[in-house]
Amino acid sequence: MHKTAKRSAKAAAAGVLALTLALTGCGSGNNTNTGGKNSATGGNASPAAAGDDTAPVTFSIFMNGPGQQPTPDNKILKQIKDKTGISFNMEFLVGDLQQKLGVMIAGGDYPDILSGDDKLINAKAYIPLEDLIEKYAPNLKKHYGDVWNQIKDESDGHIYVLPSYGVYQGKITEPTYQGPGFWLQKGVLEEMGYPTPKTLDEYFDIIAKYKEKHPEMIGFESLNFDWRVFPLQNPPEHLSGHPNDGAVVVDNNVAQIFADKDMSKTYYKKLNDINAQGLMDKEAFVQNYDQYLAKVASGKVIGMFDQHWNFQDGEKSLISQGKLENTYIGFPLLYPGAEEWYRDRGAVGTNRGFGISINAKDPVRIIKFWDKMITEDWQKTLQWGVKGEDYEVNADGSFYRTPEQRNNAEQTSWQVANKISGMFGYMPKIQGTYSDGNAADAGTQPQEFFDSLKPYDQKILKAYNKKSWSEFFKEPKENNIYFPAYSIVLKDGSPAQLAQSKLNDLMIKYLPKAIMASPAEFEGVWQDYVDRIHKLDIKAYEDRMNEGIQQRIEKWSVK
Amino acid sequence: MKAVTKGSGRIEPVVFHTFNTIFMLFVVTVTLYPFLQTLAVSFNDGSDTLAGGIYLWPREWTLENYRAVFISGTIYHAAFISVSRTIISTVFGVFLTTMLAYALAQPQYIFRKKIGLLFILTMYFNAGLIPNYFLIKNMGLLHNFMVYILPSLVSAFNLIIMRTYIRGLPFSLTESAKIDGAGEFRIFWKIIFPLCTPVLATVALFIAVGSWNSWFDTFLYASSDIKLSTLQYEMMKMLGSIMSANNDPSMLAGGQNNQVQSLVTPASMRSAITIVTAVPILFVYPFLQKYFVVGLNLGSVKE
Amino acid sequence: MSDAVLDKQVKKPKTRKSKIDPEIGVELSWKTLKTQKQLIFMSVPIALYLIIFNYVPIWGWLMAFQNYRPAVSFGQQEWVGLQQFKFLFSDDTFLLVLRNTIAMSFINLVLGTVTAIGLALLLNEIKLKFFKRAVQSISYLPHFLSMVIAAGIVSTSLSIDGGIVNVVLMKLHLIQEPIMWLSEGKYFWGIIGASNVWKEVGWGTIIYLAAITSIDPSLYEAASIDGAKRFQKMRYITLPGIKATFVILLIMNIGHILDAGFELQYLLGNGLTVDYSQTIDIFVVKYGLAMGNYSLATAAGIFKTIVSVILVLIANNVAKRLGEERLL
Predict the structure, then answer these.
(1) Which of A387, B42, C30, C64 lies 20 to 30 A from A144 at CA?
(2) Which residues of B touch C49 (CB under 8 A)?
(3) Is A404 helix (H, G, I), strand (E, B) or coil?
């Protein structure tokens, strides 16, 4: 027995050794390939001189969020390679961003292209882009013309990152509303005679009446899980007529937190009453995100406050179950006297997009590539796809998709071979409409929206005399120049950041406590909560926000 | 041990075995259920799963979850890397751990305490992310397959387990070999190593599972090289992309609807991924179980 | 002293011990080195490798006394003395997270050890080989589930709306109405403990099953001839046979008393139980890594190491005095 055991062990060891050698060889070979192969071709690409350079080159990209890795033979990537010679080595974030950035910055190991990140800007990982744009990128210059000052970094005035979202042209269309609201099931509205609630009282009245008839339903739902705390934390700012500025409300260009103010107390007191009446889901603050979605998908939740995208997966499940009457319509509830500001115009996502790293082989080539990509022809390819394959064109020139094409677009397996959504999310892009009047992408094309509408939905819309879900909300007002305040950068480890984090902790802990308390105890819990907030260095946080707001007003007002 | 009461001897085993069997069936139920549920969810339609109520059997059969997992061509190569690193780590790890444990188990060995202490301390400290990164970088192990093998070659925990086992072996076994003039290495390889099969199997399992499941080394040291990606890492990448697809508010600002709509939900994807990554390694244990036989080796040596 | 390392259940010749007693006899001399050159060759290179991969990066501990920013080279970092430690210890939640961490690790340690040994003993009694292997292979399945899936199953089981735990307890009339287990801090540690047992018991058993195999079967035969019963054999043969492994694992795990993990607590905890669910690791992630403060994470790591090493040394010493197997 020993003999055979030994022999096989030796044989295995030999095999393993061979495998090790083979893999080591392959590993070190790879090591050089990223740098070596490319720099050779990169050298050829003498800047500017030869017009459009199409020599093959591979750029490495790091994206600071997870995303879909396209297949190697992806249709769009192939087209890009054919026409520009450029291919990509994409790395999407897996795991924790802070850890990844830590080692990346410490080691100075940057790829050619980096997605925008404040930590990387602080670490001077990007090259300034404004001269490159002026020289080589007329289309980008035009694209960002109106927001040129807004895309400059706040600290030193250079442009390091080209924002991927928030630059509009033409008309802004928004048939499906993704933002915040107080939601009610369509079936509930139908049964109650199509009411339009405007205040908290009216809203909860509807829930109470409906629940009386259908006691098995859950009255009002909420969520307080992980980073998804906005269903619990944000309502006061919307009820009081403020746009979504995060943890502060801004009046007359002065920001202050609202967690401890009366506008919050009124709302949570109301929820406390609701809870006492048995209308609040008892498990609302114990559940995780999956359980929350499961409740929405079960069709048992009458209403909740949330941002639409956050529970969309649950609605999708309802649609696939054919339970359209359990899907939702949002309402912009307000405190008496407040003016509605639920919908907002997307602001330019400063420092969110792509930048070029200091290690980049050929910055000119990269900026020229993006410049080409922002042209309408390429944008149509990137957003709609290939004509005749992914979308069709009407006699009047408007784009549409066949049911089959629409169905394709939902298959993960199709997406990875035919779209590059992951990377495109970070690229400069056209939003709104093209010069021929078509919407930037299929999701915002009005006709596309109507075609996908089921008869039941049409009936509901008709009853309310509306054409789309977003019409339940007022047209967005012009953004304040500094909007949104939540994108103001808090320095790592600063008192402001610490205060914000601790404030958030207190809200996570005390708001559920206050709501679940018996009505008699509410005052006590609330007082305790407010006292604890006032022990924090809230001033440091508010000061930093106001400083940021003033800086933006000063710099961004100049167009 | 001596005082024995006779009489109840025939009933007791029956009662005991009945209860023991019932208890084991309970253990099996409780531990098997989550896996069966995961399996059922992995074959169930993603949107349908959200509504809950999937326990042991899929309601709306689909292969879309698995299709989504296998669509990216990269996972075959990643699986190859995973298998390779697991086999290599296990073979070298087991051999080196046993050899070192043997040396440290020798009571007369002069450095046994010092080296033992060095190893034990490693269990309780961690230099931190960035210093470790610099070490790996300076050793040229970034984007190198050996980064999966070298840093975790011998773990203190396994070493101690192995040392404890070797210390427990009867010393008479090596005594005669010593008298015959056999060297330490020879004694280790010819006598001790074959005697250790149960603990070898245990340590092999620990190393194999650890190596198979690890993704952090890929994340930190080899993430930009797709040729070195491992199965676990590719799976995390895919899960991340599904989870982000519907949940990036910045992409939705202003009603822009560019986000990837997907039929596969995070929960269904996670289940399919769990099955794909866990099933291969699950087969290792039953395979190793034949080495967990009481007294097999001790008995054979004595004869 | 060192003969304590030799397991007592196996009779061994005493000759070796009298010839070379490490505490007294062997000195560091060329002669010793020469006679032990094979042992040295078998161990020192591996030890050197260990020093490179584990001890060289330890310079990083200096970061705990800095305000480390990765973008700046090490020489130009700002030195802040003990500021990071002060932040750590002066935070009013630190004592709370310390308490939670120790409580949960302690529960995990006790429950984990007892259940693993118990299951190993019972598995060992199964005569049907196939059944035994099947139970073994199945019981360790949950070890391979990710924490997210495990936490999902735990919270579904504990739900008031048809969760299996409430259903069973109601059926048994142990409770009148469903309990919201996850909403109350007083249940939290127990839930974590039970979840860990469920997830890891099969895995934890492996090591004891391996230890049981090292027991000389002739001991059982002899005991059977003497008429020893099942529980007596367990008590007097099996348990002593795995005692060395048990003691070693215990000492090692005592050193991990500040590692209660954070994933499960993070996933199962919520605002209502936060005073019981936060662990040191969560604290460090929140105020350290998430804010780019690598120095704080390092300081916390040093604190944990010091506590661990002290505890391990104490445990080891106790074991030594009791004449048990020990780590060092």
Answers:
(1) A387
(2) 150, 153-154
(3) helix
**C238 to chain B: nearest residue by CA?**
B294
pLDDT tens for each residue of C73-82: 888 888 999 9
Tokens of B26: 């309970």
- In this complex, do B249 and A416 lie within 8 Å of one another by their Cβ atoms? no
DSSP C171-231: HTTS-SS---GGG-HHHHHHHHHHHHHHHHHHHHHHHHHHHHHTS-HHHHHHHHHHT--HH
Structure tokens at C288: 């350290």
Residue B260 has pLDDT above 50, yes or no: no
Nearest chain C Cα distance for residue A313, angstroms: 17
ipTM of the complex: 0.85
- In angstroms, the CA C308 to CA C304 distance is 6
C-alpha B212/C-alpha B231 separation (Å) is 8
Residue B80 CB neighbour total at 10 angstroms: 13
Name residue A307's beta-bridge partners.
A180
Q: Which residue has the tokens 């066949």?
A: A402
User: How, if at all, do strands A57-63 and A86-92 pair?
Assistant: parallel
Q: Which of B139, B171, B174 to mutate to test the interface with C (most CBs of C within 10 A)?
A: B171
Lookup result for tokens 């019972």 = C122
CA atoms within 13 A on the CB side of A411: 16
Q: Which of A472, A325, A417, A67 is nearest to B240 (CA)?
A: A67
CA nearest to A317, candidates B56, C151, B262: B262
User: Which of B192, A229, B126 is CA-nearest to residue C281?
Assistant: B126
Which of A94, A97, A98 best probes binding to C when mutated, by most C CB atoms within 10 angstroms?
A98
Q: Is beta strand A248-251 parallel, antiparallel or unpaired with respect to A254-257?
A: antiparallel
Question: C18 — contact with chain B (CB < 8 Å)?
Answer: no
Whole-number pLDDT of residue C12: 41
Residues of chain A in contact with residue C272, where contact means CB-CB under 8 angstroms, are 285-286, 509, 512-513, 516
- Lookup: tokens for C19: 């010839």
Strands (E) located in A363-407: 392-393, 399-400
How many angstroms separate the CA atoms of C31 and C23, rounded?
Answer: 17
**Helix (H) or strand (E) run with residue A432 in it:** strand A431-432
Q: Which residue from A minimizes the CA distance to C160?
A: A283
Chain B hits for C239, Cβ within 8 Å: none
Measured between CA atoms, how close is B214 to chain A, in angstroms? 12
Taken in order B84, B90, B93, B99, the sign of the CA dihedral is negative
Helix, strand, or coil here: A162? strand
Q: What is the C-alpha to C-alpha distance for residues C68 and C292, in angstroms, rounded to an integer?
A: 9
pLDDT digits (tens, 9 = 90+) for A97-133: 888 999 999 999 999 999 999 889 989 999 999 999 9
User: Does the distance separating the beta carbons of B91 and A297 come in below 8 Å?
Assistant: no
Distance between CA atoms of residues C289 and A82, nearest Å: 43
For the record, the structure tokens of A161 come out as 């990152």
Smallest CA–CA distance, residue A336 to chain C, in Å, is: 31
pTM reported for the whole predicted model: 0.85
C182 and A286 in contact by Cβ < 8 A? yes
Q: Between A309 and A450, whose confidence is greater?
A: A309
DSSP string, A59-105: EEEEESS--PPPPTT-HHHHHHHHHH-EEEEEEE--S-HHHHHHHHH
In the block, residue with structure tokens 């807004």: A150
Give residue-wise pLDDT tens across range C258-277: 998 888 998 999 999 999 99
B195 in Cβ contact with B298 (< 8 Å) = yes
CB contact under 8 Å between C312 and B23, yes or no, is no
d(CA B41, CA B25): 24
Within 8 A of A1 by CB-CB distance, chain B residues are 300
